[in-house]
Amino acid sequence: MSDKPSDLIQGTLDMLILKTLALEPMHGYGIAVRLEQMSKGVFRVNAGSLFVAFQRLQRAGLIKGEWKATENSRRAKYYALTEQGRKRLSSETREWGRQVAAIARILEAS
Amino acid sequence: MSLLRNLADGLRSLLGKERAGQELDEELHGFLEMAAEEKMNQGLSRQDALRAVRLERGSLEVTKEVVRTAGWESFLETGWRDMRFAARRLWKNPGFTVVAVLTLALGIGAHSAIFSVVNSVLLQPLPYKDPGKLVFVWSTMISQGVPISGLAAPDFREFRDRNRVFSGMAAYTYAGFNLELPGEEPSRLQGAAISANLFSVLGVNPILGRMFLPEEEQWGRHRSVLLGYAFWQTKFGGNRDIVGRNLRLNSQEYTVAGVLPKGMPFFDDLPRVDLWVPLSYAPNDEMNTRGNHYLNVIARLKPATNLKATATELSGIASQLEQQFPENKGIGAKVVPVREQLVGDVRSALLILLGAVAFVLLIACANIANLMLTRATARQQEFAVRSACVPKGNPLLRANITRTASRRRAHGFGRHSARYLENGAREHRPMDDCRSRARSPRCLGVRASDAIPVIRCASTRPYASRLGPRFADGCRVGGGLDSRAAGNEGRPDDCLALRVTLEPLAQTA
Questions:
Q1: Touching check for A110 and chain B: CB below 8 Å?
Q2: Residue A73 located in a structural domain
């Protein structure tokens, strides 16, 4: 229960993807790697969940995809945040903060 | 907005299935390659790198399937596939199909026949305003052995004037008429004599002319007639000038006052009534005495009154009359709601019949269910295959509801499983987990990636006998299904590989 990658908390993957894309547009693998790096290896996302989430976010109009060449001159689909996605990210971040604070208060209560 | 986009996106991928599939393929392939490249930079061979990526991130095929089935449109697609499969299976089993269809047809047919009767008799509202407030009023002569009888004309007038529970009370009686039209043979008509307020009590308005006036109940002013819609149409061709014309009825001239609306059955409309005249009596008319009980009386309850209060009120008036008039000795009063009067005893009989056919339908369903169960047992092997190759969730359950097995998935079992074996998946699962998966009904939803632990279970003693041969057999079934696609890359071989792998496992156990 220590260094093994753990599963994401239900429903947080979308928010994390949005956060990753807030910096710059990125392709699927890049997003997976960045999620891992940013979580210092705690989260490992499998391709299935990741691509289903891309599809879902795209359909909700929160991200949009565009085929581009990578630095290794490979073709890849780059995802970018839409204006709507940016708004959703900030609202979800706020809500998340509120919930985490509340949970912490409960756990720390003696 | 996002709902629209979702819809549009789904439709696009449904219509451009090939393109969407290719795009996903390319994207996932790129993902795999990039991940492998990184592993290779760490010094792994290409093959090892690819394998490591598959282990870490899940297999490409499974991922593709997961993404493809995530959108709503996959539901349509598989639904359509399931329907086609169901139709094909039914077509191929004509015996079963005929039995099932006939059983259900009989059950449903009987049920809907009885229900349509119940609907028109019990459920459809009567064509009068607020029919729930309409009641019939009858006399009773229990001491003379007559439970129910019409009212005598003088009694009707007493009840009408004394009661405080009705907003209106009207009487009618059937009568025959001879109609003589110039240049035609006389014809016999069914008519009714009614008190002037009858139709206003019922809440029916004429479509032409007017209803009777109260003074038309007086003898001498009573030569007025109302026509029924059907009679007006057939005899007078719907001529709107009919109002005010004279008709010769029973050798007397009557003036047409109005025409009643279409679809207004006069109570049960048996007999069908063609025309109505005012109920009026000549002086010393024998029919207008306390001894002649023959009037049908209908009344409308005041909004605040109920049946019980009405019955009490009427009994009170009846006993007043008993004391007042010697002829009324032993005559009581009874009130019956209109629907109950018209439907009578049929109500309970109809409901019992409806219940009976409902059970017939239920039995028919149970029979079909049993039939399906028998057939399901025969298809166990097929289920075993498919439960192993369904990627996620309960498509198998859904598929069974529409009675389907998508052939593609059946191939898939061989393909996925063989790949796993080939890749030497090392993912370890605790035995208990595996056992419960293999046994529980949720096994129907078992994931392709779970096939490995299940197969590994098969190599351990207690489970091998259960799962080994079944899976091996299943593979044969899969292979059989596959025969038409034998030209496709690698599929039969996959199956063979799996069988080769599984059968020794089963034997050694």
A1: no
A2: yes
Going by C-beta distance under 8 Å and a sequence separation of 6 or more, which residues neighbour residue B382? B405, B410, B474, B477
Collapse the DSSP code of B119 into the 3-class scheme (helix H, G, I; strand E, B; otherwise coil) and give the result.
Answer: helix
Is the CB of residue A29 less than 8 Å away from at least one CB of chain B? Answer: yes
Contacts of B34 in chain A (CB under 8 A): 27, 29-30, 70, 74, 76
- 10 Å Cβ neighbour count for B210? 12
Interchain contact, B27 vs A28, CB within 8 Å: yes
A58 touches chain B (CB under 8 A): yes
Q: How many CA atoms lie within 13 A of B495 on its CB side?
A: 25
Instruction: Look up the ipTM and state it.
Output: 0.84
B contacts of A48 (beta carbons < 8 Å): 58, 62-63, 66-67
User: Three-state SS across chain A?
Assistant: CCCCCECCCCCCHHHHHHHHHHHCCEEHHHHHHHHHHHCCCCECCCHHHHHHHHHHHHHCCCEEEEEEECCCCCEEEEEEECHHHHHHHHHHHHHHHHHHHHHHHHHHCC
H helix runs in B251-403, sequence order: 307-324, 338-343, 346-378, 380-389, 395-401
| Alpha-carbon distance B468 to nearest alpha carbon in chain A (angstroms) | 29
Asked if residue A2 is part of any domain, the answer here is: no
**Can you give the residue range of the structural domain that contains A87?**
13-108
**Could you read off the pLDDT of B455-474 as tens digits, one per residue?**
443 333 343 344 444 444 44
| Vertex B126: Cα angle to B190 and B229 (nearest 5) | 40
Number of domains comprising chain A = 1
The better pLDDT of the pair B71, B258 is held by B258
Could you tell me which of B499, B326, B344 has the C-alpha nearest to residue B414? B499
Instruction: Return the CATH number at A55.
Output: 1.10.10.10
Lowest-confidence pick of B10-24, B77-91, B145-159, B345-359? B10-24
> At how many degrees (to 10) do helices B73-92 and B94-118 cross?
110
Tell me which chain B residue has its CA closest to the CA of residue A56: B71
Q: Which residues of B touch A77 (CB under 8 A)?
A: 23, 27, 30
**Residue B191, SS3 per DSSP:** strand
Mutation test of the interface with chain B: which of A35, A44, A51, A70, choosing the one with the most B Cβ atoms within 10 A? A51
Q: Which of B2, B6, B63 sits opposite A47 (nearest CB)?
A: B63
